[in-house]
Amino acid sequence: GSRVSLVTKKKLFDSATGKAQGGIACVTDESDSFEAHVRDTVVSGAGLCNEKMVEKMVVEGPERIRELISLGVEFTKKKNSDSEFELALEGGHGKRRILHSGDITGNEIERVLIKNIEKNKNITVYKYHTAIDLILDKDRICRGVYVFDNENNNTEIFEAKVTVLTCGGAGKTYLYTSNPDVATGDAVAMAYRAGANIANMEFVQFHPTCLYNIAAKSFLISETVRGEGAVLKLRDGGSFVEKYSPQKELAPRDIVARAIDSELKSRGEKFVYLDITAKNKAFLVKRFPNIYAKCLEYGIDISKDMIPVVPAAHFFCGGVMIDENGRTSIENLYAAGETACSGVHGANRLASNSLLEGVVYADRVYKDSLQFLEKEYSEVDAKPIDNTKSPVNKSAAFVRKKEEEVRRLTWDYLGISRSNERLLKAKKKIDILKVEIEQYFKEVPFTVDGIELRNMMFIAEMIVRSAIQRKESRGLHFNTDYPFLLPDVKDTVINIR
Questions:
Q1: Which residue in the list 143, 253, 327, 407 is annotated as catalytic?
Q2: What residues form the catalytic site here (predicted)?
Q3: Average pLDDT rounded to a whole number, residues 253-273
Q4: Is 253 a known active-site residue?
Q5: In three state form, how does the secondary structure of the chain look?
């Protein structure tokens, strides 16, 4: 085996994977079929899915699931069965096909993967190391990455024959998000600055139901709660989703999120309610132990009380454009998972397809990248970046203030519902912020917060550039000035060059 360096800016379990409650979508039941899973995915993707990529994901899914199980992942089994899995249903799926581990599936998968990483002698984990930028040689081949050591405050060069970007999404770019604090779009921003093609960044999925509580930063109330019969209600107790879709609570996420957003905007409210009190306590404690306990911490007994919820930035369908082997437009640079835009999600991701995409495309990247490890490359001409700049007094306060500005701007102008006027305002504001932030980045010694702020600003720029280019409303991108679909379907591809 080759030597692998795993660079992570916090600890290994600081990721969105661990927060994935619902599960992993996969065809395992005789009554289900690959065709049905592909069809559900493509319908959700609103005409923009790359069907070849979807097929690869769906067909290779069962093999990857078997691999996860052999590594030690324990999926919930049916009552009184040792071999049959309990399958959950989520919005947009025509069949029960979601494998889950209670209501903490991502956590279970992550636990097992970390255990296996720690046992592997070929993998060195560099915790508290933050990637700054990619290293390209004169032929524009990626040769590694500049890294900031958070604890020693110095920069290092990580040289590599193969570089793989798997840094998740960028939910933290928005004011309200279901994502952990680390989700600042670092990999997409680095690839963009290096000149890679970036696709479909206008398609940001908002999870319809994040717990509304100032203390509860980013706690998700899973889709599966609605799958078990929860109803969305207004302050007066009236339901409203049926006005927007005959599928009501089980409509695709974008429709449910837009329904909530529209009600909140027209009523000037901050949240709506999710009501699952029709189910008894014993059922809820068994089916949703994590959600039940977490809500109780905030004084909400979900068997008696309605849950205040708000939509929150959840998943980026766009990212670094890749082919079926995870290759980006830069040689020797790969991307997978939420960082990548593989085309499997189209304009709107189907619930529980993200963990599936992650495992299938990680496997494809691994197999394809082996060929580069045989090759010899010249010395890379890169020196560590000098970090002995004179510290400027404004550092921490400046970063906090600008981060707040970026996140407020994305929420106000690049949210669930957009308009030409809002997009142009956002672009103006981002252009000004960019000058200030890049100037700061040059003058002030590196900090993790500073690196993240710069990346979030670039993510905001990519969202606005992509959104302005799309003169229609499709999937997650809804522009009130173009409330129609164009007959010609195409990806929005941008780069910095």
A1: 253
A2: 253
A3: 90
A4: yes
A5: CCCEEEECCCCCCCCCHHHCCCCEECCCCCCCCHHHHHHHHHHHCCCCCCHHHHHHHHHHHHHHHHHHHHHCCCCCECCCCCCCECEECCCCCCCCCEECCCCCHHHHHHHHHHHHHHHCCCEEEECCEEEEEEEECCCCEEEEEEEEECCCCEEEEEECCCEEECCCCCHHHCCCECCCCCCCCHHHHHHHHCCCCEECCCCEEEEEEEECCCCCCCCECCHHHHHCCCEEECCCCCECHHHCCCCHHHCCHHHHHHHHHHHHHHHCCCCEEEECCCCCHHHHHHHCHHHHHHHHHCCCCCCCCCEEEEEEEEEECCEEECCCCCECCCECEEECHHHEECCCCCCCCCCCCHHHHHHHHHHHHHHHHHHHHCCCCCCCCCCCCCCCCCCCCCHHHHHHHHHHHHHHHHHHHCCCCECHHHHHHHHHHHHHHHHHHHHHHHHCCCCHHHHHHHHHHHHHHHHHHHHHHCCCCECCECECCCCCCCCCCCCCEECCC
